[in-house]
Specification:
The structure is a homotetramer.
Chain A: H1 2-10, H2 20-45, H3 54-74, H4 82-104, H5 111-132
Helix pairs in contact in A: 2-3, 2-5, 3-4, 4-5
Chain lengths: 134, 134, 134, 134
């Protein structure tokens, strides 16, 4: 989403020393992981073997919620509070780790879990990269 | 987000006669508009002339919420209910119309409103296109 | 939630001729239905007969998203736009109708579906009451 | 919301040694704080002195997002992952602390900030109580 950078560039005040490239990449990763987790939860729900995928669906739902919230928090710069940013990223990173692990364990059977595991890994790493630069 | 199509392709059951190209485009437009509206609300909040932008901020927040919800609803296909899809799209379309109009009226002064107005127009149209094919 | 009325009373401007009692009741119903639908989706997911409940889970998730968004939209009064309010309420009403019907069909087997059906019916009615007074 | 306990009681499997009273209280506090923060952001936006309240609005929006997500995560028990629960609660606790501090600093001037500060303090404590018992 090139609009992420366009919006960061048009922010009227200083972004406060944040690494804009890492931030932009992380917002994009959160939106992609949000989308993938919502879709993976639903695809799992339509599998014949849904009984084997209930933990995966639950973790998808948690991860989707945390990615949405983290994408939102990272898109706000007014009255910046590094502490909220940090703990939100840590929560998102942990959810992406759990969801990535869970989806990976079904990746050979279900393409949607493979795609979702990749999105989770990328978002987990993108969160770690922003945390490292706070 | 090419993952939107990858996830639609990996859905294990039939998508139910939906126009996949229109659906995919609309989900992408919802995610982009969600992101832009969250960022535009915050950019408006940091403008010196925030007192002139309070209606814009409010409409941004409504539009962001509706785009998130619509992106989620459109990403679920299990137990498809055309009625929920239709009214959700209509609500999103109306919010994008209002937010696009509001942002457009500030587009010459604020780049973030110009970018956001474009995202709203695209999402409004994408919703209309899916509705036309339901 | 008595804080809903406290917050409406402390709003610094005029609420714009809205029926405050109907509004307050509808916000409370949206929050209760949001909570119940999130919990019912998860309870269904843990039932041994989850394969019979996949449509119920999906409808729960849609209804939860729409109740969250509607509770948010109804809690904003700045730059009031009756059109967004109306279509959002109509979408919420439709989701509550679908989810109430679906949960009711499982109410004799699952207490969580019975409780959730009641919350959906109350929210559906509360949305209709606000719409009637717009 | 007495439905929170009704839904916890109707969950078909074991809740996994969680302290149900603390959990129920925390979910209720999250929903109340979510509602109060959404409403406080909008009330601040309608104040004549909105320019003094932009940090408050931003913190309200972050806190609302985190309370919604935390209320959702705490309402899911399928495939329970204590690690996600813990970091989500820590993020919510931090957002409630920041938002409570910010709102408290405006509590003498604005009733909505006073009510919201109270809701944030209660939610911060409720999160701490669940964390202490994990």
């Amino acid at each position: 989403m090139h609009v992420i950078d366009q919006m960061l560039d048009s922010y009227p005040k200083d972004l406060g020393g944040v690494d804009q490239a890492a931030l932009s990449k992380c917002i994009a990763a959160c939106r992609e992981c949000e989308q993938t987790c919502v879709a993976c939860a639903d695809a799992c729900l339509s599998e014949d073997g849904v009984t084997e995928l209930t933990k995966c669906i639950r973790t998808n739902l948690d991860c989707a919620d945390l990615c949405t919230t983290t994408g939102n928090v990272l898109s706000r710069h007014t009255g910046y509070d590094a502490n909220i940013t940090r703990v939100t990223l840590e929560a998102c990173q942990a959810a992406c780790k759990s969801c990535g692990d869970e989806c990976e364990s079904h990746a050979q059977m279900h393409d949607h879990c493979k795609i979702c595991a990749d999105a989770c890994r990328q978002c987990e790493q993108a969160c770690a990269d922003v945390i490292a630069k706070l």
